[in-house]
């Protein structure tokens, strides 16, 4: 990825990401509570997604020497938005059937209700940290298999089909990834209450939006633990299948799939 000089743009976008995170939390916990009393974070985040996409587009127009890879093209951006919307439509159309036909006999809630052997206290903040770690650990392996097993790659490759790398790319998703991703979650139903898994899964998904940008450069010590745009740019290099972590990059460091952005430029 070509490095740009607009450090101010990098920090402006990073600040907007942090502000959007606060806004999403406020909207979800105040106005978007589901019938079970749980905040619905992803719908709450959608307006902030489009605000951040618009901000990135403006910044790319004004920074000195913007990265070519980050360019917004109408066809490519429309493809990303269309793929994301298609995924949501498919899930909505199948939701009733899944809830009535499959979930009662082979779903996360059914497994938890009948077979869980640990009771986690959802009033304890440490339990939420524990569940978030479990969600991110599961995501790492699901994501890794999504790149290394052909039948799973058939779904995930949609996300990697963009010709450009910008925040709109984060919305380029496929319905098949949701299907096979569910299978990786089921073992955790023996431990984690469904509402805690759902909420932490939403946090995991939302975190990954901001790493799809070329504008935010290296972030110092943050990159020792957390997945950042630098790490994820390596991941989207079609020559490199590395850096699978969702929120944490430590899984890649532990399991030998980490590649630094500077190393990827030199080696591949």
Topology of this protein?
Elements: H1 7-31, H2 41-62, H3 74-106, H4 108-115, H5 125-148, H6 150-156, H7 175-185, H8 194-207, H9 222-225, H10 229-236, H11 250-255, H12 261-267
Helix pairs in contact: 1-2, 3-4, 5-6, 5-7, 5-8, 6-7
What does this structure look like?
With 268 residues, the chain is mainly α. It is built from 12 helices and no strands. α5 (125-148) crosses α6. The longest helix has 33 residues, at 74-106. The radius of gyration is 19 Å and the shape is globular. The two termini are 12 Å apart. The mean pLDDT is 89.
What are the key terms here?
single chain, mainly alpha, 12 helices, 63% helix, 0% strand
Number of strands: 0
The topology string of helices and strands comes to HHHHHHHHHHHH
Shape: globular
**Number of helices in the DSSP assignment:** 12
- Biggest β-sheet: count, sense, barrel? none
* Average pLDDT reading: 89
| Proportion in helices | 55-70%
């Amino acid at each position: 990825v070509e490095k740009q000089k607009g450090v101010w743009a990098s920090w402006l976008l990073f600040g907007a990401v942090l502000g959007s995170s606060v806004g999403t939390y406020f909207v979800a916990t105040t106005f978007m509570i589901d019938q079970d009393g749980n905040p619905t974070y992803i719908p709450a985040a959608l307006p902030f997604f489009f605000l951040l996409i618009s901000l990135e587009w403006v910044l790319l127009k004004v920074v000195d020497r913007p990265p070519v890879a980050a360019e917004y093209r109408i066809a490519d951006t429309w493809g990303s938005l269309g793929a994301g919307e298609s995924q949501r439509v498919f899930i909505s159309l199948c939701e009733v059937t899944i809830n009535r036909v499959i979930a009662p006999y082979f779903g996360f809630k059914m497994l938890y209700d009948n077979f869980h052997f640990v009771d986690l206290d959802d009033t304890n903040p440490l339990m939420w940290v524990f569940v978030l770690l479990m969600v991110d650990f599961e995501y790492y392996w699901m994501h890794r298999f999504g790149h290394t097993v052909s039948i799973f790659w058939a779904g995930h490759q949609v996300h990697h089909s963009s010709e450009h790398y910008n925040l709109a790319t984060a919305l380029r998703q496929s319905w098949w990834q949701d299907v096979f991703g569910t299978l990786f979650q089921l073992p955790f139903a023996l431990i984690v209450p469904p509402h805690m898994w759902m909420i932490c899964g939403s946090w995991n998904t939302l975190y990954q939006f901001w790493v799809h940008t070329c504008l935010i450069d290296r972030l110092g010590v943050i990159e020792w633990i957390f997945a950042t745009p630098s790490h994820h740019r390596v991941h989207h290099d079609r020559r490199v299948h590395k850096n699978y972590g969702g929120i944490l990059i430590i899984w890649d460091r532990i399991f030998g799939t980490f590649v630094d952005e500077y190393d990827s430029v030199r080696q591949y």
